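[job 0412] stage=fold_complex status=start
inputs:
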Amino acid sequence: MATEIKQSMYEGIEVQHFQFFLQNSDEHEGILQFLLKYLPEQFKRISADKSSLGVLGVGSGGGELDVKMLSLLQSTCSSLPITADIIEGSTELLANFKALVAMTDNLQKIPFTWHVMLSEDYRKQVKDLKKYDFIHMIQMIYYVDDVTETIKFYHNILKKNGRLMIIIEKASAAGDILWRTFSKELCNETIPVYYSSQDVVASLKTLGLKYEEHFIPNTYDITECFDHNSKTGQRLLAFMTASNDFSQSFTPQIRADILNLLRNKCSAEKEGRIYFNSGLSLICVHA
Ligand SMILES: C[S@@+](CC[C@H](N)C(=O)[O-])C[C@H]1O[C@@H](n2cnc3c(N)ncnc32)[C@H](O)[C@@H]1O
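[job 0412] stage=fold_complex status=done
writing structure:
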């Protein structure tokens, strides 16, 4: 019997909300600016005494950050051949990623292997496991079934001097406050439990793994969320609460409570605009 391929929640309307969020926030730009400073030194360490480099992206989405990291790895370690494997649960986002690779000249020399599946299925089903020098999970660990088992699995498939890089909402940052306060209303089948950096750090301590943690500032304008006639505001709220439609998914009281929390506990005002204080944690786990 053929094995069923499960997809992530990122298809159709969720992809549209995610892309809308990316267009209306500087999240990718903020992460990229940090990585451009942080990764060259890591890549030099990872590549010492190696004759080739294997990269694994988990939950890479449309690959916007992957192509930048791979280009940076190419320029930092120009003499080494690179391979890239991608595990991604959304066929729609993976198609975008493939299109992006096709139009990026310098990536034509890198062979890509696409694993269209959830991380859990890769962990449980793939028997012939490859090892990697650099594995990254950017803004995706919220969706795995078991953080400790996931980290243990990916750490086990790191090569010597390899690094597992996780980027996730920082503990006590605005996203963490929102999701922990309204966990009963926001958590669902896809995100049954909300994780932030403190859960990843707790897992790393349980596993006794060596890691370092860095802060990536990430604020974005949510002023429109407070105008209930604003389509921009409604779409941002849908993404922030992982709901298909903010106004249909919650009672008027819950919507009012969420907006109140966003305004008073999760944001700051600057020049008449309201900015969500969503800081990120970059956690780099050593092999
Ligand atoms: C918030 S997006 C982040 C995408 C990309 N890393 C970025 O930062 O632009 C989360 C991604 O994780 C993928 N995803 C969600 N659950 C997954 C799972 N269990 N295994 C693999 N990918 C998953 C989604 O399809 C989506 O592409």
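[job 0412] summary: The chain has a mean pLDDT of 95.
[job 0412] exit 0
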